[in-house]
TrEMBL record:
Lineage of origin: Eukaryota, Metazoa, Chordata, Craniata, Vertebrata
The protein, known as: Mitochondrial glutathione transporter SLC25A40
Highest taxon of the lineage: Eukaryota
Source species of the chain: Neogobius melanostomus
Record's keyword annotation contains Transport: yes
Reaction(s) catalysed (UniProt annotation): glutathione(in) = glutathione(out)
Length: 356
C-alpha cells in the first residue's frame, strides 16, 4: 500500500477509535526503537556514579519519562553496569554479547502500561481538538495546532500523573495493593487530593511548551515540504523529516525546563519513596541550579536530549500518520465494496438523486 495514496482519501475521516489504534501502534514502535538508547545511557550513568538504595533515576522509553527507584544494591539489577564500558558503542556490543539482545529493552514492559495510554490520549485529543479549533478559528487556523497541542498535553499529563506516583511507590516499597491504598488514603487526608498530582507542575512546565511548539512547527514544516515536493498529502519521508525537525526545535527551546523537571522529579521521587513530605517548589529548584552551576546549568545535556528526542518524534509521528492513512484508505475501500454490493436498482436510484 502506498502511503502517498492517502491523497485520494483525504476527505475520508477516520473515527477516534482508529486514531487510538494508530497512536498505540506508533507508541509501541517508537519505544522499541528508542528504549535501547536510554538503557545504554543509564548503564553508563550507573558506571560513572553507582546508584545507592533509594536513589532515583529517570528512564525514558521514547514516549515519556519515568522515575525509577533503585531498590537493591546488588549487580543483578538491570540498571547496574555489570561490565566496564568504554563508550556507547562498546556498551551496546557488551550488553548484547554477554546479556542477550533482550537486555536492551530492560525495564520497558512496566513503563508501557502508562506510556501507551498517555500517548493514545495525547494524540487522539490533539487530532480531535485541532479539527474542532480549525472549524472555529477560521481566520487563524495556523494557530490551532499550537493551542491543541498544549491542551492535549495538559489532559494526558493530568490523567497519568497520579498513576505514575502509584507506580513509583509500588516499585520502591514493594507494598501490597491494600497497603498502597492505605498509604494513599493517609497522604490525601494529610495533604489533600492535590498531593496525588505532586509532580505535575514540573511536568507541565516542560511538556506544554514543548507540545505547543512541536505541533505548530510540525504542521508548518509538513505543509512546506508538501509544497516543495508537489504533493497534496505527506509521505513517510515528509512526516519523518517534519517530526525530527519540529522535535529538535522544541527540545532546544525547552531544554532549561527539561533540566529543572528532571531534577525536581528525581527529588520528589526519592521523597515519595521514603514517605516523606515534599517541600520546596519548581522555582526554588531552578534557583538552586543557577546558584550552584550558573545559567549554563540550565542547558546541561543538550546533545543527549537532542539525540533522544529527534528520532523519537520522527518515528512516532510518521508511524501515526501512516496508521491514519491506512485506516482512511481501508474505510474508502470498504465504502466502495459496500456500494458495489448494492442492487443495480438502488444504485440507479441513488445516481438519479445526485443528478437532480
Amino acid at each position: 500500500m502506498s502511503y502517498q495514496s492517502s491523497a485520494s482519501s483525504a476527505s475520508v475521516s477516520i473515527s477516534p477509535i482508529q486514531q487510538m489504534v494508530a497512536s498505540c501502534s506508533g507508541a509501541i514502535i517508537t519505544s522499541i526503537f528508542v528504549t535501547p538508547l536510554d538503557v545504554v545511557k543509564i548503564r553508563l550513568q550507573a558506571q560513572k556514579t553507582p546508584f545507592p538504595k533509594g536513589k532515583c533515576f529517570v528512564y525514558c522509553n521514547g514516549l515519556m519519562d519515568h522515575i525509577c527507584v533503585c531498590v537493591n544494591g546488588n549487580s543483578r539489577a538491570w540498571y547496574k553496569a555489570s561490565n566496564h564500558f568504554n563508550g556507547t558503542v562498546d556498551a551496546f556490543i557488551k550488553i548484547i554479547r554477554q546479556e542477550g539482545i533482550k537486555s536492551l529493552w530492560s525495564g520497558l514492559p512496566p513503563t508501557l502500561v502508562m506510556a501507551v495510554p498517555a500517548t493514545v490520549i495525547y494524540f487522539t485529543c490533539y487530532d480531535q481538538l485541532c479539527t474542532a479549533l480549525k472549524a472555529r478559528m477560521t481566520d487563524h487556523t495556523q494557530e490551532a495546532p499550537l493551542l491543541a497541542g498544549g491542551i492535549a498535553r495538559v489532559g494526558s499529563a493530568t490523567v497519568i500523573s497520579p498513576l505514575e506516583l502509584i507506580r513509583t511507590k509500588l516499585q520502591s516499597q514493594k507494598q501490597s495493593y491494600r497497603e498502597l491504598t492505605d498509604c494513599i488514603r493517609s497522604a490525601v487526608e494529610a495533604e489533600g487530593w492535590l498531593s496525588l498530582w505532586r509532580g505535575l507542575g514540573p511536568t507541565l512546565l516542560r511538556d506544554v511548551p514543548f507540545s505547543a511548539m512541536y505541533w505548530y512547527n510540525y504542521e508548518r514544516a509538513k505543509s512546506f515540504l508538501c509544497q516543495h515536493y508537489n504533493t497534496s498529502e505527506p509521505t513517510i519521508r515528509i512526516s519523518f523529516l517534519s517530526g525530527a525537525l519540529s522535535g529538535s526545535i522544541a527540545a532546544i527551546v525547552t531544554l532549561p525546563f527539561d533540566v529543572v523537571k528532571t531534577r525536581r522529579q528525581v527529588e520528589l521521587g526519592e521523597l515519595q519513596a521514603k514517605n516523606l513530605s515534599c517541600q520546596g517548589s519548581t522555582f526554588k529548584c531552578m534557583s538552586r541550579i543557577v546558584a550552584e552551576q550558573g545559567f549554563s546549568g540550565l542547558f546541561v545535556g543538550f546533545l543527549p536530549r537532542l539525540i533522544k528526542v529527534a528520532p523519537a518524534c520522527a518515528i512516532m509521528i510518521s508511524t501515526y500518520e501512516f496508521g491514519k492513512a491506512f485506516f482512511a484508505i481501508a474505510s474508502m475501500h470498504l465504502g466502495v465494496w459496500s456500494w458495489s454490493r448494492q442492487s443495480p436498482e438502488l444504485q440507479t436510484e441513488c445516481q438519479n438523486g445526485k443528478e437532480r
